[in-house]
Amino acid sequence: MTIIQLNPRQLKIIDIVKENEPITGENIASILNVTRATLRSDLAILTMTGILDARPKVGYFYSGITGATLVGNKIKDKKVKDIMSVPVIIKQDTNIYDSIVTMFLSDVGSIFIIDDSENLCGIVSRKDLLKATIGSADINKMPIGMIMTRTPNVITANKEDDVILATKKIIEHEVDSIPVVEINKEDTNQIKVIGRLSKTNITKLFLEIADN
């Protein structure tokens, strides 16, 4: 049986919730003398695995390790490749207007950008496109490469990564999705996009586990 390995702070959070349930995230942060943002990923992991139960406007409750272990087993067995979706990709010389059209027709929150060699070179979000449209830029002429977040500042995942690890990246960096990539071991500048892992993919996984 696979047991979830919790870090010391997560174990401390469990103890705090046991002693003070229901308790808000702000109060947990105050007890640990850290910011609420610092605890975001820890609380997400503990609630997604079922160890804690979160109720809006009430706070966190302790659910029990036994039930969480069963859920954790199912999650631990999942790799990124099992739940990733097809990525939406455009070239870096695509103009901003066409990028906006692509994003909304594809109904995604971010688009991955590739260079002429089809290697990942950046990412653009809805927020990036909104800023461009309300600015002075000519969106019919300016290439998307001018406003994208460039590698190596793009957070990525490997298809063999555990879903929990990839989920933690999404939560910690507060992004909608991350590209799933294959990196050439002989030339690390060659980064091919093979998938997309989003909050929607993760939500569907937990719903699937709950339904079963």
From TrEMBL:
Keywords, ordered alphabetically: CBS domain, Repeat
Signal peptide: none
Entry protein name: Transcriptional repressor CcpN
Domain of life where this protein originates: Bacteria
SUPFAM superfamilies: CBS-domain pair, Winged helix' DNA-binding domain
Domain CBS: from-to ranges: 83-139, 148-212
Listed PANTHER family: CBS DOMAIN-CONTAINING PROTEIN CBSX2, CHLOROPLASTIC, TRANSCRIPTIONAL REPRESSOR CCPN
